[in-house]
Amino acid sequence: MVGPVSQGPVGTSDVVVVGGGAAGLSLAHRLVETGVATVTVVEPPDGPARPAERTWCYWDHGDDGDDAAGGGDDAFDEAVTATWPLLRVHGPDGGPITVDPAPSRYRMVRSTAFERLVHARLERSPGGRLLRATADSVRDVPGGAEVRCTAADGRPLTLRSRYVFDSRPLRALPPARTRLLQHFRGWFVRTRTDRFDPAVADLMDFRVPQPRHGLAFGYVLPLAPDRALVEYTEFSRTPLTTAAYEAALGHYAREVLRLGEFTVDTAEQGVIPMTDARFPRRAGAAVFRIGTAGGATRPATGYTFAAVQRHSRAIAAALRDGRGSVPAPHGRRALAMDAVLLRALDTGRIDGPAFFTGLFRRTPPQRLLRFLDGATSVREEWGIGLRTPVGPMLRTALEVPFLPRRPHPAPGTGESPR
Ligand SMILES: Cc1cc2nc3c(=O)[nH]c(=O)nc-3n(C[C@H](O)[C@H](O)[C@H](O)COP(=O)(O)OP(=O)(O)OC[C@H]3O[C@@H](n4cnc5c(N)ncnc54)[C@H](O)[C@@H]3O)c2cc1C
Question: Does some domain include residue 163?
Fold first, then answer.
């Protein structure tokens, strides 16, 4: 299954994973822990080329054996920074809707804690390895694939393996009918008095001024009664300047949340594509794309982390069973629904804040979370669909299949400096 390494002090492995971010580390962890394959993860050395620290949130599904992070075994518990049993949405009129999705809980993993955990597990596993190098090219070769990279000391290295899973960000998004961006900036704040309820995560707070195009909301993840991640997010076509995010965040923290005196410890900023582009999963006979580059980001929500865990499990199963292909990270129905929703939002046919608030108000919380995870049945989806603005959604659904996918300008990188 394994080819020789042509240069450098690097041993062999069945699989090379290019990029040790959310998708690369999740897959490597899965393959090594289940003993399906030996793995080398190629990740650049620490420095400006690596993404800044991020938080990844997802919901686990309690004790039902389908934990998004580990397939029922709480694999990443040690990296979980916070957990919220209750979810809340504030409608544009200010009215809060609080839902209890038990046994599911919303959880936050910080990327540095996740990296530490998976790096340590790779290190102590005989089948796992982390190689600090920058991949320059990936290509098919007879019997597998080859990754040419540059090591931390500048030496060139060539790795050969049966399969390569590549999570490097794409240079440009593939052609799409709709391309929105989920762009945001958040502050880790510390207030002088207790201002937060650590049991409740505010997923969408529409009490912020709405942009002319798209929608905007606040997002509050309490870490303690006096500490929280407070974000301002837009779904629209263009990111804001840092100064504009700061102004929007200041308004949200002071005028809407009325936090009183507070300090900002650090900030997090990002851009996540929301698009109905088709992300090719296969980049060669033995080369597959994973993560955001492989279409794992759910178009209508930007959530990726949970999908990456499910996808890692599916890839591990495919390799174990000797299948030479890997399944898509999202089902066709989920992608078709997202294409309609994105188009309806982009054209302004539906009112985003009213739509999302209505979804939370009218859908049982467990079903809503399964819907967002792409795990609902057709019947459940009809039930949810009939409670949305049927006319505009139907018109959009009829139009979308006839619209061409067009190239769009590059969206920029996923993160910007803090
Ligand atoms: C600030 C922020 C917050 C987010 N929050 C959430 C959230 O709460 N929940 C959620 O579900 N999703 C969230 N997302 C979306 C998504 O989960 C993340 O973008 C996630 O990191 C995507 O995983 P990935 O593996 O595809 O990419 P990344 O995690 O970015 O990993 C790509 C890796 O490739 C490496 N790399 C790049 N070039 C090379 C090269 N030449 N050679 C080798 N390696 C290379 C990079 O260093 C990086 O480690 C967030 C995104 C951002 C930007």
Answer: yes
